[in-house]
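Comment thread on ticket #2218

A.B. wrote:
> Attaching the input chain for the structure job we discussed in standup.
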Amino acid sequence: MNNKMLIGIVIAALVVAGVIVAGSSKKNTVMLGGEKTQEEVLDEGAAEEKGQDATEGTLDKKVETDEEGKEEVGEDEAMEATVREVRVEGSPFKFAPNVIRVKKGDTVRVTFVNTEGFHDFVLDEFGVKTKQLQAGGQETVEFVANKVGTFEYYCSVGNHRAQGMVGSLIVE
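C.D. wrote:
> Ran it. Output below, let me know if you need it in another format.
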C-alpha cells in the first residue's frame, strides 16, 4: 500500500470513531438545544438508579441543597402547570358550563361546540375568540391562564351577551 492510501484509511477510521463517540454523547443534551451540566447528568444517573424519571416535577423549579444534601425548593418555584381541557356548549343565550375553574399557569384548551343557533366564544383578557359558528360547528382554542381572578366569557353575536350568554373563568 502506498502512503496516501494508508493515510486515507487512518482518517476514515478516525472519522468513524468520532461519529460513534458523538452519537453516544447525545443523551447529554437537552432537546431544547441547551447543554446539560455535568451535575445534571449525574443527577439523572442517580435518578435512573432509583427507577425515577429524572425530569419529573423539575420543570422551572429552583432547587437548593442544605448542608446535609437535602433539597430545599426556592420560594420562586414555578407552579406545576397542567393542560385543562373543557368542552363548552353554546345554545340560545347560555353556555354550559357557565363556570370554569383552573389554576394559574394551567394551559386551558376550550372546545366550543355550538349546539343551536349562531354563536361564538370570547374571552377578552386572554385574547381568545372563536369564529362565529352555525349549529353543529365547533372550534378549539388554547391559552395559558397567567392571571388570577374571575374573567367573563361571552357570545359576541348581536345582543346575546346582554341577554345573558355569559360565563365565568375563575383562575385561582
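A.B. wrote:
> Thanks. Noting for the ticket: The chain has two helices and 13 strands.
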